[in-house]
Design a protein that fits this description.
The chain is built from 14 helices and 28 strands. β15, α9 and β16 (about 285) form a beta-alpha-beta unit.
């Protein structure tokens, strides 16, 4: 006999965990299907374990992009979480909502109810902010997701921040508040030395409910239809196929790679592609899998002295000491996120809003690889265009979801992305060469002093750049009049019934920053839509007083 539930959620990642909690809070029955296993791997919960989960097949799909000109013919690793919590269980812990204009632009594209004032209440609803001085305008304190400030500064980071401020970049301790731009320490999803994932925050507290069932090691094979209505899901578990039925709706929350692939193998997608992989067409929807975007970074790294970096603390007896410190106090190196300091700034002083994001860490990596530290003391600043214009695709290679799809973000394909990547490398060089860093900086190791021209810097970025793990947009949200969209502004898949997508794949235009916070917000808002609840009242956003600042030679301002 086939199991039947009110709702079936595909994927227990950031979005799926939130949906499972919210949809099962009443009397509706909910089944969650997760292809990975339980989130028991110890490196998930140790913040510095990020270095290991990036390359661990037990918790990571270990996708790779297709080679491209933009990456000098290289395939780029595309990590995605394969466990409860999804990518929130393997990511770099950063809590970054993005610029308010991101969401206002979603609304301007015809997505009703997705402006910043509309989505801010959903950010607040899921957040439990510890620290800070917000009066409740921008932050929540009663939600499930614990967000904290870094509880230990670092002398290299302090010098870097001071140098940026003296360049004219304002100090901003709360980039998720009234103003996004500036420099400061990151807010992160770490609490008491442990990772805070969507699973530990939203899913695990709900798993004792009798109306919620979470099935792991359940890889979805396809969505089942009765005519054009989605009625169930077939998945593989333990070497056999199993079916589960949905009386009300099925919600895809597999992420920017899995969600379009599952739609395609289920018969929803470009008819030509479906014919190539031998899948009968349920609905010809050409936009499925298109519009993929990602942030692509390039790094400036330098050798340092007169200040300790994390490189020395991560080997030998020093590492033994750090392990002991973490085991007894939940502090030290192992309790840190991989990136400590943010800079959101402008490539051109004439711009109204920032278009470049930088992350600074008091460590350096071999050949720019994020999981292998150099043996000598070092520091790194990485940068990328906030809103890349390059677009790619996700396309199933066969009708079997066990076959990884073709993933092509087309990094650095657009001239805009090329220009901003070069600008980021040049500005990053300035940031690590300020007077405040003079006693620390020894020499630039990456890309190196001999790399100076725009062509040389772009070649370096193509050869050594990599993803920031922010894949999005492959099931784009938009109005009925836009043929390049997959879902409407209530996240319903076009042309069929009983099926929605709620995850980072619905983001209609490249999000300016990290995607985990926005994905959680999308799921929060989606849960009200699915349950037929009215949206939360729009936030009252205070008008910010104009600040008297004078321009300086770096294109910043000083008060």
């Amino acid at each position: 006999m086939t199991d039947s539930f009110d709702y079936v959620i595909v994927g227990a990642g950031s979005a799926g965990s939130v949906l499972a909690n919210r949809l099962s809070a009443g009397d509706a029955t909910v089944c969650v299907l997760e292809a990975g296993g339980r989130d028991r791997h110890p490196f998930i919960h140790i913040p510095a374990g990020f270095m290991k989960t990036l390359t661990s097949p037990s918790v990571n799909w270990l996708y790779e992009t297709e080679p491209s000109t933009g990456t000098a013919g290289r395939s780029i690793p595309a990590p995605r979480g394969k466990t409860l919590g999804g990518s929130s269980s393997i990511n770099g812990h950063v809590y970054n909502r993005g610029q308010s204009m991101d969401f206002d632009s979603w609304a301007q594209m015809g997505n009703r109810g997705w402006g910043y004032a509309d989505v801010l209440p959903y950010f607040r609803r899921g957040e439990r902010r510890i620290g800070g001085s917000d009066d409740g305008t921008y932050h929540g304190t009663d939600g499930e997701l614990t967000v904290t400030d870094i509880d230990a500064t670092h002398p290299l980071c302090d010098a870097f921040v001071e140098g940026c401020v003296n360049m004219g970049i304002p100090y901003n301790p709360d980039y998720n508040g009234a103003t996004h731009e500036g420099v400061g320490y990151f807010q992160r999803t770490i609490h008491r030395g442990r990772r805070v994932s969507a699973a530990t925050s939203f899913l695990h507290p709900a798993m004792n409910r009798p109306n919620l069932e979470v099935r792991t090691r359940a890889q979805v094979e396809k969505i089942l239809f009765d005519g054009r209505r989605a009625v169930g899901v077939r998945y593989r578990k333990g070497g056999r196929s199993v079916e589960v039925r949905a009386r009300r709706e099925i919600v895809l929350s597999g992420g920017a790679i899995a969600s379009p692939q599952i739609l395609q193998v289920s018969g929803i997608g470009p008819a030509r592609l479906l014919g190539e992989i031998g899948v009968p067409v349920i609905h010809d929807l050409p936009a499925v899998g298109e519009n993929l975007s990602d942030h692509y970074l390039a790094r400036n790294a330098a050798r340092v002295h007169n200040a300790p970096s994390l490189n020395e603390r991560a080997r030998g007896l020093a590492l033994v000491s750090e392990v002991f410190t973490y085991a007894t106090r939940r502090t030290g190196l192992l309790a840190l996120s991989p990136s400590l300091v943010h800079v959101f700034w402008k490539s051109d002083p004439a711009l109204d809003k920032g278009d470049l994001q930088f992350i600074f860490t008091p460590a350096s990596y071999k050949d720019g690889r994020p999981a292998e530290l150099e043996t000598y003391p070092g520091m790194t600043i990485a940068s990328w265009p906030m809103r890349p214009q390059s677009r790619g695709y996700v396309r199933a290679k066969s009708s079997d979801t066990r076959d990884k799809p073709a993933i092509q973000p087309n990094y650095l394909d657009h001239e805009y992305d090329q220009r901003l990547t070069i600008a980021g490398l040049r500005l990053g060089r300035e940031m690590i060469r300020t007077p405040e860093m003079a006693s620390i900086f020894v020499e630039e190791t990456t890309p190196g002093e001999d790399v100076q021209s725009d062509d040389e810097l772009l070649h370096f970025a193509r050869t050594y750049g990599t993803t920031v793990f922010h894949l999005m947009g492959s099931c784009r949200m938009g109005p009925d009049s836009d043929p390049n969209c997959v879902v409407d502004d209530e996240l319903r898949v076009r042309g069929v019934e009983g099926l929605r997508v709620a995850d980072a794949s619905v983001i209609p235009a490249a999000h300016s920053t990290n995607t985990n916070a926005a994905t959680i917000m999308i799921a929060e808002k989606a849960s009200d839509m699915i349950l037929g609840k009215p949206p939360l009242p729009a936030a009252q956003i205070p008008k910010q007083a104009a600040q008297d600042r004078r321009p300086n030679t770096h294109g910043g301002t000083t008060t």
